[in-house]
Amino acid sequence: MAGPQHMNTLDDGELLALFRKEESRHYAFNQIVRLHQRRLYAFIRRMVTDPAETEDILQDVFLKAWTGLENFRGEARLDTWLFRVAHNESISHLRRLKRRSLFNERRLARQLTVTLASEEHFSGDAVQQKLQRAVMNLPPKQRAVFTMKYFDGMKYSEMSRVTGTSEGALKASFHIAVKKIEQELTASDQTIARPKHQTSA
Amino acid sequence: MEPLDHNEELQQHAPRLHALGKVDPFKVPEGYFEHLPHRITERASAGTGTGRTFTSRERAGSFRPAKALWALPALAVVAAAVWWLARPPVQLHQPAEVPVLSETEFEAYAPFANLDDLDLSSAEWDSIHVHLTEEEALAYIDQEEIDLHELLDYMQLQ
User: Fold this and answer.
1) CB–CB of A124 and B25 under 8 A?
2) Alpha-carbon separation of residue A4 from A31, A35, A39, A145 (angstroms)
């Protein structure tokens, strides 16, 4: 979940310079993947939930990076640029999934929660499950905003570069997402806390 | 990072959410991150005969002019096939204009002129003759529901 690992001291410029040389291209790209894989994986996983789909999307992100890095001019930071690719790929994937399954977003979210019930893929407690369920009930773009801000701690300015949306719109989207999630957490707390004989009355 | 604003917002609007710890509950297959850089680099470089590689979705959904060159011969064959199927129908057996023959010309026409040369006398005509008794003939007429008037007319013609 953390950002770049401390196994590499090369900055973006040095890595890109190495990538552009034929003899050091593989080494540089290997380092780029090592630096960013965990953070991108965590983001994609929170967006799509399914582990196999996450791996496919992450692979596509890096393969696109391989082809796109030749033309990368360094106007944005490398991690922002990679995050942008991951964001777009995740949103596209969710759109495709929705079109293919002809499910609406709410039904699709319910389907995805089944994955959370699997102990093989999810280690969180009941509270974490509730949180993830609430996150998955958000529409894809809002889910991305919430994930980037809440879990990744990204700045709005960087989120704006990732999503291509204004900071104001992102703040509003995050605020609404937080309220929705809080509402769901509160509702589920009340359901659990309410004694059985009262619910049936 | 705007930590204060962010935390304040959470405290104010979402105390339950704020109270939760930010843990990562998703499990990742063992060794996944150790092997991924090598796997990705290998896969990426495998598709770089021309310095490019393509993801599965790119392969399925986009046009690559360089790759299209390889498709030109196939395209030519398909175009030829389409042209062949769409061309105006050729009448292989044109109705020939048959001149009206005079009687002399007709008789002079070899196959018919030499009909006598055919050994028709050797045909076993008797084999196709049917000799019926009166009872059999009446039974046959009854069975086939032959109109007697038509039969009599036919016999008169003979």
Assistant:
1) yes
2) 10, 5, 8, 21
Q: What mean pLDDT comes out for the span A79-90?
A: 96
A153 contacts chain B (CB < 8 A): yes
Is A176 an interface residue toward B (CB < 8 Å)?
no
Contact B26 A64 (CB under 8 A): no
pLDDT of residue A89: 96
Establish whether this prediction's ipTM goes over 0.85.
Answer: no
- The reply to whether A5 falls in a domain is no
CATH classification at residue A96: 1.10.1740.10
Position of tokens 């399914």? Answer: A50
**Angle between the B32-46 and A51-68 helix axes, to the nearest 10 degrees?**
50
CB A85 within 8 A of CB A59: no
Residues of A within 8 A of B9 (CB-CB) are 175, 178
Residues in chain A: 201
- Tokens for B12, please give them: 């104010």
- Which residues 59-118 in chain A show a CB within 8 A of chain B? 59-60, 62-64, 66-67, 70
pLDDT tens-digit profile of A92-119? 998 888 776 665 666 666 666 677 777 6
Give tens-digit pLDDT for A3-29: 444 455 788 889 999 999 989 999 999
Residue A2 lies in a domain: no
Range of the domain at A35: 12-193
From CA A74, how far away is CA A147, in angstroms rounded?
25
- Domains in chain A: how many in total? 1
Cβ-based contacts under 8 A for chains A and B: 110
CB A156 within 8 A of CB A171: yes
- Between residues 10 and 49 of chain A, which touch chain B (CB distance below 8 Å)? 25-26, 29-31, 33-34, 37-38, 41-42, 45-46
Find out whether A84 and A124 touch, Cβ atoms under 8 Å.
Answer: no
